[in-house]
Amino acid sequence: MNLDLSVIWFVIIVFATLMYIVMDGFDLGIGILFPFVRDADDRDVMVNSVAPVWDGNETWLVLGGAGLFGAFPLAYAVIIDALTIPLTLMLIGLIFRGVAFEFRFNATPSHRPFWDRAFLGGSILATFCQGVVVGAVLNGFPVENRTFAGGPFDWLTPFTLFCGFGLVVAYALLGSTWLVMKSEHPLQGKMRTVSRGLVIAMLIVIAAISLWTPLAHPAISERWFSLPNLWYLLPVPVLTLLIAVALWCKLENPDAHAQPFLLTLGLIFLGFSGLGISIWPNLIPPDISLWQAAAPAQSQGFMLVGALIIVPIILVYTFWSYYVFRGKVQHGEGYH
To answer: Is residue 130 part of a domain?
Structure first.
């Protein structure tokens, strides 16, 4: 049986991207939620809930980017060229946020508010730019002679900006439900209230993008609404609605701690699945498939050997770090 290395690498990159969205999503969500929490001790609990694991979460971003560079160099070149500005701003946000993360623990009381604002700003900037990138990928890129043929600001559209806002809402919901799981009253109660508002905002965002995308792109409309595709894909929106209802009910239940976060992960997974369904099999929408963008099979095979070694190692140390630091985070405790 011949292995399709392009499909294997596509799966690896999709898996790494999903792991990054899940793990760094609630991490970035912690910073986005800072305006909802004014108490300094509560903010310390929020940060300490991710302090032991936050930098390891970004390993998945590096893996996804490196995999795209090696396995699909055409896609990497086009995306980097087309999205230089938002990707650079994203990295600036991640760097500034990482510095603020460490400095706020050691800052004097007079300087702590500055680093809190830096943590908030870096989290929002990085998240918003990631959403803009997702929106730009959905919109597609003009390619001529295997190079990006558009302008430096083609990514700047109302749709991409709305996608940026939508991802801020999604990461904030991940962060708030993570804190429902990791914190205790009164911070947990506040996060339950915030989460309920974010669930409503999330459903509005999902509905808007689900309508906007097919209206703007006939090919995506054909993918979702033609028969028999409509019947095959109908479980995605139905499950989204059912999970949202279940999430709301669990947020109303004071005895539910981990369930809201797990249900939010389900919402994120369904949203990510919808994105994949919309653009498959194009790695550079609207016309360049993953096979057209692929590196030679020899290169993909050589890289696959390394990936089969490194991915299990990343999974093991990720699981172990989360296992070691499981449980509730108390006031006054932290790894710093």
So the answer is: yes
